[in-house]
What does this fold into?
Amino acid sequence: MRNALFLAILLLALFISCDDNENDAISMADYDPTPYQMNYGQLPEPDLPEDNPLTVEGVKLGKMLFFEKMLSRDNSQACADCHQQEDGFSDRRQFSIGVEGLPGHRQAMPIFNLAWHSNEFFWDGRAQTLREQSLLPIQDPLEMNTSLEAVIAKLENSQEYRDQFIRAYGSEEITAEKMGLAMEQFMLSVVSHNSRYDKYLAGELQLTESEMRGLRLFEEEYNPFFPEFSGADCAHCHGGINFENDQYMNNGLVAEADIEDIGREEVTGLREDRGKFKVPSLRNIAVTAPYMHDGRLSTLEEVVDHYNSGIQESTTADPTVLNTMETGLFLSVQDKQDLINFLHTLTDEEFLNNPEYHSPFQ
It folds into this structure.
């Protein structure tokens, strides 16, 4: 009996010892500052934050957090649930639904090429940096509805996350600041640069006649005196290689008396910013419906019709769009179709299917 008891104790001690050794082996992780190499094709070199250099392990940690449901109150939602890659990291719903079943009050903005945005983040620009932006939905009652302290407590119970924080930052200590920096790294790494239009610029393919006419209309200015030479004047707000202008603008979507969402004014307190919103990139525009800050327009046809004949007067509306109120843009049915066909050339199928942006938990 004593021998059997001794043998049982010995086996238990060996089991505990082996288990401890296995845990020690699992928890082994080393800091790895290997730089992350961005691929951005013909886009200009981005001005990345000097205090948060992109590393392979930092980007990986940010991607893990982006797809992590523990960031929500009931572990049911991740950032990626409202920012789907196949939709240009945007949301097909007019308003995203949070963990309490409540809708947000603005359309979820797409996430790509944020390294080339220099005018803050969110529709109203209330976040100065991506690291700040990344933490706000976690705490928003309409979104993930929890506290940073609660999220950190959950992550601290995960050996996988403690190890990844070591690899990214040299310490297993998990803080909100590190979380924000990591998610900033991942979002900065998300790049779209290889659409049909980009291939056209590189001389790799030719656009169709309709797409070329659409490109001309996109770039040509509105001309009320010579309608036959008048364009859609899209490049005024969506110019450059990233098809945006780093500004906040009122595009005549809502008449003065009907403005309920004051937009940029809510952040700046300036009356002249009423109804102004961040100008988004038109890259991947064909897959990021619905459109506008409140998602009120469902199709590109509706968007073109708005600019062609639906401008509403407002004291803060951009003069360029107000100038077209009396006559519209003179766009024919064929003009509209050509313009939309060109906008489809901005879809980057490689980006939409890039496995580098897939969930790390698949």
Remarks:
- Residues 5-25 have pLDDT under 50 and may be disordered.
- Strands lie at 248-249, 277-278.
- Residues 2-26 form the longest helix (25 residues).
- DSSP finds 13 helices and two strands in the chain.
